[in-house]
């Protein structure tokens, strides 16, 4: 029995649409978080380089096979992913290194005194 | 003219495979970065909740339509995304707050003196 017979095609279309919506909009809270914190040290540059290139390929694929939903979802995801990538490159240059960085770097030892 | 006629279907299959490979493996460097730094403050919890749910839907969709590549790619992506999510939840509880957090929190003001 073909798996599609377990549910109607309409159910699978609905599941696919939910999947595309969730994976696309998920990058919006990440963009907002990086923008608010002005920090993206914990985010992997390599992840967003690979991911952006992959989504660009999905976009070409969507246009190529003439699929509106694939094209639209990946166009929006690409905009969000590239925006996060640009902010990461900007903040990594300007922001001070975080605890996680200084913990492994050869920083000058400092003494911290509470102000009375 | 149908867009597929611009290139052969084999070309679009190749572009689609490249896209799936890049978007899937992109989460591996992110997982490694979080694991090494023991920090995931800049990563959005909401992003990985939405993304993991979306990928789980893609997985059900892949199984449902009987697509091996969609099922395999999303199964691997789900494992990586959930692993990042679990590490974020763990490190956010145990690690000290980063510069970006303390900058907006009502922390006790401190004086930093270099040790001579």
Descriptive tags:
homodimer, mainly alpha, 5 helices
Task: Explain what this protein looks like in three dimensions.
- Two copies of one chain form a homodimer.
- In chain A, 68% of the residues lie in helices and 4% in strands.
- Chain A has helices at residues 9-25, 27-37, 45-64, 68-94, 99-102; one strand at 110-114.
- Chain A starts with 8 loop residues before the first helix and ends with a strand.
- At the A-B interface, helix 1, helix 2, helix 3, helix 5 and strand 1 of A face helix 1, helix 2, helix 3, helix 5 and strand 1 of B.
Question: Secondary-structure blueprint of this entry?
Answer:
2 copies of one chain form a homodimer.
Chain A: H1 9-25, H2 27-37, H3 45-64, H4 68-94, H5 99-102, E1 110-114
Please work out how many helical segments of chain A DSSP would assign.
Answer: 5
Give the oligomeric state of the chains in this entry, treating copies of one chain as homo and distinct chains as hetero.
homodimer
Report the count of strand segments of chain A.
1
Largest sheet of chain A: none
What fraction strand of chain A?
A: under 5%
Instruction: Please give the alpha-carbon distance between the first and last residues of chain A.
Output: 76 Å
User: Shape of chain A, please?
Assistant: elongated
- Structural class of the secondary elements of chain A? mainly alpha
Rg over C-alpha atoms of chain A, rounded to the nearest angstrom: 21 Å
Mean pLDDT of chain A: 86
Helix content of chain A: 55-70%
Biggest chain-to-chain interface with counts: A-B, 64 and 64 residues
Q: What's the order of the H and E elements of chain A?
A: HHHHHE
Low-confidence stretches of chain A: none
């Amino acid at each position: 029995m073909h798996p599609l017979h377990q549910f109607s095609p309409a159910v699978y279309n609905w599941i696919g649409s939910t999947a595309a919506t969730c994976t696309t909009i998920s990058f919006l809270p990440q963009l907002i978080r990086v923008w608010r914190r002005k920090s993206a040290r914990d985010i992997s540059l390599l992840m967003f380089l690979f991911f952006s290139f992959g989504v660009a390929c999905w976009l070409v694929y969507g246009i190529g096979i003439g699929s509106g939903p694939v094209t639209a979802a990946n166009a929006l995801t690409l905009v969000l992913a590239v925006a996060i990538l640009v902010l990461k490159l900007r903040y990594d240059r300007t922001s001070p290194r975080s605890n996680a960085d200084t913990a492994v770097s050869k920083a000058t030892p400092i003494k911290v005194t509470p102000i009375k």
